[in-house]
Design goal:
Length: 232
């Protein structure tokens, strides 16, 4: 884990850091199938004064064949869950939310007994106005592959993907492809997937679908959401 910058920043300083870090995001294909995947999610207290994070680590134990449609998904063994809590330090500023959320996520990850191969994060990767959402910001700190899987769109336009699980369409900001809109369950609302760091969009789509074994939300982030909700 690297320490790329301090967190006690002004708005102007955060913007400068964000612009510099966005240029470091690496779009590199995964060298191998991840065997240990962590889900990461955070949540705020009702008054917004405290923020909580949970990381749930899952070992990939197998690959289930789907009924006539190719692989249906990973099988998982849950091996570790950690949580963290902090006072909220950075104000709510649209476009700079990762500066508000990343510190507590990093504190949670620091408690893990081993570093996962890949992090699936409830949030945006490069599908963000200045191309540095939470998943990308954390990926640079963690020096690991990260994928952003959000429940809603932040920016961009897309054509509705097909209704069956596995269907997807590109998410574009003007002429630039910034992510994908992925149907993780048939006839259920899609999720919004983007590269965080050290993966390609194809990798991000494939891992997200393989992790969405029963629910709309991929299993690592679904379990992390449950864990952080209990702590909150």
């Amino acid at each position: 884990m690297r320490n790329l910058h301090e967190w006690n920043l002004s708005y102007a300083e955060a913007r400068r850091v964000q612009a510099e870090l966005a240029g470091r995001v690496a779009f590199l294909p995964l060298k191998k199938e991840p065997r240990v995947i962590a889900g990461l999610d955070c949540a705020f207290s009702r008054d917004g004064q405290r923020i909580f994070a949970a990381a749930v680590v899952l070992r990939v134990t197998g690959f289930r064949p789907g009924p006539g449609e190719g692989p249906d998904g990973f099988e998982f063994e849950q091996v570790e869950t950690v949580t963290a809590a902090q006072e909220t330090r950075f104000p709510y500023i649209p476009g700079l939310l990762s500066f508000r959320e990343a510190p507590v996520c990093l504190e949670a990850v620091a408690k893990l007994s081993r570093m996962p191969d890949l992090f699936l994060i409830d949030g945006q990767g490069v599908a963000q106005p200045r191309r540095l959402g939470l998943a990308s910001h954390l990926g640079l700190f963690l020096e690991r592959s990260t994928i952003g899987c959000a429940k809603s769109r932040l920016i961009g336009e897309f054509a509705e993907p097909g209704s069956r699980k596995g269907a997807w369409s590109l998410l574009r900001d003007g002429d630039e492809v910034i992510g994908a809109v992925v149907r993780t369950r048939s006839r259920v609302k899609p999720v919004f997937v983007s590269v965080g760091h050290r993966c390609t969009l194809d990798n991000a789509i494939g891992v997200t679908l393989a992790c969405a074994t029963r629910y709309r939300i991929p299993e690592p982030t679904r379990l992390a959401h449950q864990a952080v909700s209990r702590v909150r």
